Amino acid sequence: MSKKDLLTILKELENVIGSLALDIWQNPQIAYEETYASAAQKKVLSDAGFLITDSIGGMQTAFYAEYGKGHPIIGILGEFDALPGLSQSSKPYKDPVVENGPGHACGHHLLGTAGVETVLALKELIDQGKVSGTIRYYGCPAEEVLSGKTFMAREGVFDDLDCCLTWHPSTSNVVQNYSTQAMISIKYRFHGVPAHAAGAPHAGRSALDAVEIMNIGANYLREHLADGTRIHYAITNGGQAPNIVPDEAEVWYYLRGSDRDQVEDMLSRLHDIAKGAALITGTSTSHELLANCYHMLTNDTLDILNYRNMEDYPMESFTSDETAYAAILRKSMDPKLIEASRRQLQLDPNDILPTKNFYDVKLKDSTMPGSTDVADVSWIAPLASIGTTCGPIGTQVHAWQATAVFGTSIGLKGMHYAARIMALTAYDLLTEPALVEQAKAEFAEATSGRPYQAGLEESILAPGTERKEQLI
Q: pTM surpassing 0.70?
């Protein structure tokens, strides 16, 4: 039985892959700067015989590794960027390794490395002649700023995929059969005239005034937007000193909505507000589009396949030491958040590290409040995602507790389980062509013939190359 062989291979890979994940965890780098993780993963894959395609879209850390030939072509998405300011040791209390340094509080060192483990195991079956087709691992930068995969998609590197699989560290084993919000990230800059704020204020034109007037307009816009939409902003440049009329100011906006059409409409209205703020203050304005990602498309065929493999090959229980560590870590968490998560998953109060599997068909038409550039890929090929238990119930990603637990055996156990399920599901797709065709037929119906078009135009370049601002 080849699935049994696959599980044996995965087990043999655990020590090497676990060391790779912890190595990346100990060397965190933020979006577009993930040179350490990218190089480490490429070396492992290259040494195993994978063909590496590097520097996709001009991004030095973006790559894909390919093995095999012919169809089906099954993609596995990986990520490896850390978050700023969330450095933390694996101790169950706050203990930054580098004060204000980056840390893997979203577990992307696990996310990408599980993908490496998956394709290495499948490669062995290809070599043994037990499966045929092509497997491809994508090392994707900058998910945290929601644009790495958009730049990669614009290059067409996902276009020939038959199906695609991914996952994310979680606090339960769950089929992620729900959508995410479309999102635009954009900075507005205002350009005025400096002057002495006391001696000659009439000679100045305040760029900061324009930012503040724009924010007022955006806040009045909120009541006229559809339910579930979001506008967040931060003033990233408000001037240098109170006694100088600021001639430069900047505000950074996130716009979220249920689909691309909704956020594009919000953007059009926000552009008008920026023009009005500039007109009122006698300044000029420009903008820089940083991200523009789609909402997620789900795929029942792949979701059900993932769930069947989760049920057939359940996760091992956590040890008493792992449970004791999780209990200590939870003392630093908000009890209300822990209880809300417990009730949502219908867990026993003593179930700190759940290993049972969740698949709620009622979630299919729902949308979670967050966004991800994984959604762009879901508009190019059938895609499915799972979450696995990498931390105790109540752990919030983008918090120091997540950095801590994701650097322990708890995080590694969840990572290996994710690799197992992705490998098993990929095996099913490689050996049963009817499943691939079913997933693709469902994808064609979901997209209704609407082709993917990257939300970032060719003139917008990835960080590390010159960006072009657009006057409005």
A: yes
